[in-house]
Specification:
It is a single chain. The protein has 117 residues and is α+β, with helices and mostly antiparallel strands. The chain has a single domain (25-113), classed as Beta Barrel (OB fold (Dihydrolipoamide Acetyltransferase, E2P)). It has helices at residues 2-24, 28-33, and strands at residues 42-55, 58-64, 69-74, 84-97, 100-113. Strands 1-2-3-5-4 form a five-stranded mixed beta barrel. A hairpin with a 2-residue loop joins strand 1 and strand 2 (58-64).
């Protein structure tokens, strides 16, 4: 009798984990509409890189997901223009990079290359 209960508990835990992962992906429009809601939370944004700047292994890239554009700040090399990526990280407000005010941005903690549209 313990085996079915354990199976149900494991299935429930997996379902909760998958739900949390699915909720983490947001659109640029959702983030810009209420950036405070996402402060100190990990979110991911997927889209095409429209602009990128890199210097000595650090940089910023702008991602367009179809709902808007947002800057992604990275502590590593940035993807080139036209690349499709999913960036994961934390939202920061009032970010200034290289003398440019980038407003709401994502401080990257991870990135995945995606297939083309």
């Amino acid at each position: 009798m313990r085996t079915p209960l354990r199976s149900v508990a494991v299935a429930f835990a997996l379902l909760c984990a998958m739900s949390a992962a699915a909720l983490a992906k947001k659109t640029v429009n959702e983030i810009k509409a209420d950036p405070g809601r996402y402060r100190n939370k990990t979110v991911s944004v997927e889209g095409r890189v429209t602009d990128s700047y890199g210097v000595l292994g650090n940089g910023a890239s702008e991602i367009d997901d179809g709902t808007g554009r947002s800057w992604v700040i990275a502590d590593r090399a940035v993807p080139s223009r036209g690349a499709r990526v999913e960036a994961k990280g934390h939202i920061v407000n009032g970010l200034v990079f290289g003398g440019r005010n980038m407003g709401v941005a994502l401080r990257e903690t991870g990135r995945k290359a995606k297939d083309k549209y």
